[in-house]
Structures are given as structure tokens and as C-alpha cells.
Amino acid sequence: MAQYEQELEGDVNGLVAHLDQQILRGSVSANVEDSSDHTIGDARMVVRVYERYSAFGGNRVSLNISILAVGGRLAVSAITAGGSQAVFFKINTVGEENFLNKAVDALRSYAA
């Protein structure tokens, strides 16, 4: 499992649209597997679960992005899972790391 967290300023709808565009165009097999959106008072939580095929590992990997938005402040957590064929421990995390890097690049380009 690989993880990245970042706080930034912006519009949550704009960030989600940017992430969808950047992550999905990064791989022909990438798709939005599921999503969730909740609002309580001034706080909003948006979750996206992306999935793609990892040719390096010969399997699928998932990327979960959770965004907590309060006003223009955004806290983002990106976590990948999958990508290993071992039974008791992970021996191949290249697919996860590559997928996470797509999210990191998208977040950095949004914040720039």
C-alpha cells in the first residue's frame, strides 16, 4: 500500500473534475470504480475509487482518493492497494506506486 496526503486551497468540484481527467487519461484501463459524496454543515467529504490494470504486475490496482473540504480548504488523502500476487506479504508494489504517482502529479498540477 502506498499513501500520499496534501492540504491545499481551491474548489472541491474543480479538484474532483481535475483528478478525474488527469487520472483517467493516464491509462486506457483506468476507470472510476465508485464514488461517494457527503455534506455535513460546512464540511464536505468526496471519495473516488479508481481502478486500472497494471501490466507490470499482471493484475488490477486501486486508488482511493478522499477529499475533506471546508470552505476553500481541502485535505486530500490518496491510498493505493492491490498489485501484488503474493499470499502473505507484498513482493511487487510497482503498480501501486505508479498509480499513486498519477494522483500526486494531478494534485501538484492543480495546486500550481
List the helices and strands and how they pair.
Blueprint: E1 2-9, H1 12-24, E2 31-40, E3 43-54, E4 59-70, E5 73-82, H2 94-111
Antiparallel strand pairs: 1-5, 2-3, 3-4, 4-5
CATH topology: Protein Transport Mog1p, Chain A
Strand content: over 45%
Intertermini distance: 27 Å
Helix count? Answer: 2
Identify the CATH architecture. Answer: 3-Layer(aba) Sandwich
Shape descriptor reads elongated
Q: What features would you describe in this structure?
A:
The protein is α+β, with helices and mostly antiparallel strands and 112 residues long. The protein has one domain (2-111): Mog1/PsbP, alpha/beta/alpha sandwich (Protein Transport Mog1p, Chain A). It contains 2 helices and 5 strands, in the order βαββββα. It has a 5-stranded antiparallel beta sheet with strand order 1-5-4-3-2, covered by helices on one side.
